[in-house]
Every structure is written in structure tokens, then in C-alpha cells.
């Protein structure tokens, strides 16, 4: 699933946005390979870039990583990565809710930030660059299970089938600052 609050399918850069969703790893079997469960991505294929924000799962450890690169053009080798949070409590057979508030920009002067709550508890409060200096390919959001099978990621029938359930992913622009974490989490939980 890919979606965005703008008609052309892009996440706004330099503006306050919220994203909330529920996630449940249904009958999950822990494995050593890395899974991406949610990502904010940027790139059009001409420059290979990793997601600049991702919720990842490896074994039973959940992790949120962010990346930034103000170089023109950006590249994987010049990109900085920040592990924002990790926990060894994966939500197997239980719902957990994430709410994110962010301003995307690779430039510190733009006031970029990332705040994340899990089940109403703040887990990330980061002020700093977020995303890539790549205006030719604006950022977009992807929700869904993405399994890293090998470094080049071809699909493999040997990879175990896994079920990830998502509840009501919600993406909101908030130029007036009228929303709160409680509002978004309540909306997602009610559906």
C-alpha cells in the first residue's frame, strides 16, 4: 500500500505531518532476516536510496531508523543513519499502535524533526535532518511487509510466509497544529 496526503502522491517537505497506524504480527515466527513493516521512501530508481524512515523487525527486535543526506545528488555512501529507537518486544498476536509526527527536510535549518509514540508512550523525540536532498523525486509512504531475502532482494519461495495486519493507516497534514497524538491514535483504534 502506498499513499500520501497530496493529490500527486507525495509527502510534503517542510510541513508538519502526522502518520498513525496499528500493527499486528499474526502468528509470527521469529526469523533472523530483516523485515520492513513501514517506510517513508524517496527515489525514482535512477539513484538507489534506502528508505529515509523505516520500522524494521529482525528476530524479535523492532527498530526505527532514519536517514538523511543533504548532498546533491545524494548517495548511499554519503547518507547518515540514526537508530531512533529499538525494543525487543515485537507485537506478536497483539495490536500495537504507532503515531508519528514529523517535518521532512535534509537541511537542519528547516526545523526538521521526528516524534514517535508507541501505544501512547513517547519513544522518539529527534530534532535534526530527515530525508534526502532529491527534489526530482519527492518522498512517499509505503505500508506493508517487505522482507529482505538477500542483499539484492529477489523474491524467494524459500522465505517463510508471514502475516502482518494493519489497522487504519492515517496520514494527516497539520499546518494549523490542531491535532494531537491522542486524536490520531483514537481514530486508528476506532476502526
The portion of residues forming beta strands comes to: over 45%
Rounded to an integer in angstroms, the radius of gyration calculated over CA atoms is 16 Å
Quick check: average pLDDT? 89
Main sheet characteristics: 7 strands, mixed
Helix and strand element order:
EEEEEEEEEEEEH
Helix content: under 10%
Number of helices: 1
Structural class: mainly beta
Q: Termini separation (Å)?
A: 18 Å
Shape: globular
Regions with little confidence, pLDDT below 50 for 5+ residues = none
The number of strands is 12
What would you say this structure looks like, in words?
This protein is mainly beta. Helices cover 5% and strands 45% of the residues. The protein has one helix and twelve strands. Strands 1, 3, 4, 5, 6, 10 and 11 form a seven-stranded mixed beta sheet that branches. Strands 9-8-7-2-12 form a five-stranded antiparallel beta sheet, with helices on one face. Strand 4 and strand 5 form a beta hairpin. The longest helix is centred in the C-terminal third of the chain and has 9 residues, at 181-189. The radius of gyration is 16 Å and the shape is globular. The relative contact order is 0.29. The mean pLDDT is 89.
Summarize the structure.
The chain is mostly beta strands. It has one helix spanning 181-189, and strands at 2-3, 16-26, 34-41, 53-58, 61-69, 80-87, 96-103, 113-118, 121-127, 131-132, 140-147, 163-173. Helix content is 5%, strand content 45%.
Task: Give the arrangement of secondary structure elements.
Elements: E1 2-3, E2 16-26, E3 34-41, E4 53-58, E5 61-69, E6 80-87, E7 96-103, E8 113-118, E9 121-127, E10 131-132, E11 140-147, E12 163-173, H1 181-189
Parallel strand pairs: 5-10
Antiparallel strand pairs: 1-11, 2-7, 2-12, 3-4, 3-11, 4-5, 5-6, 7-8, 8-9
Amino acid at each position: 500500500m502506498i499513499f500520501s496526503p497530496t493529490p500527486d502522491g507525495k509527502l510534503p517537505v517542510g510541513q508538519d505531518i502526522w502518520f498513525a497506524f496499528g500493527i499486528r504480527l499474526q502468528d509470527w515466527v521469529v526469523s533472523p532476516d530483516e523485515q520492513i513493516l513501514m517506510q517513508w521512501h524517496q527515489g525514482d530508481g535512477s539513484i538507489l536510496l534506502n528508505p529515509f524512515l523505516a520500522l524494521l523487525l529482525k528476530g524479535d527486535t523492532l527498530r526505527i531508523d532514519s536517514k538523511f543526506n543533504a548532498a546533491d545528488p545524494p548517495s548511499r555512501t554519503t547518507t547518515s543513519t540514526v537508530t531512533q529507537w529499538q525494543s525487543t518486544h515485537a507485537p506478536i498476536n497483539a495490536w500495537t499502535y504507532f503515531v508519528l509526527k514529523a517535518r521532512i527536510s535534509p537541511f537542519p535549518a528547516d526545523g526538521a524533526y521526528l516524534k514517535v509514540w508507541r501505544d501512547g508512550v513517547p519513544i522518539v523525540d529527534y530534532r535534526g535532518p530527515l530525508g534526502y536532498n532529491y527534489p526530482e523525486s519527492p518522498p512517499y509512504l509505503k505500508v506493508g511487509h517487505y522482507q529482505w531475502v538477500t542483499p539484492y532482494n529477489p523474491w524467494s519461495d524459500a522465505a517463510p510466509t508471514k502475516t502482518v495486519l494493519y489497522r487504519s493507516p492515517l496520514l494527516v497534514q497539520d499546518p494549523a497544529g490542531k491535532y494531537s497524538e491522542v486524536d490520531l491514535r483514537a481514530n486508528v483504534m476506532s476502526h
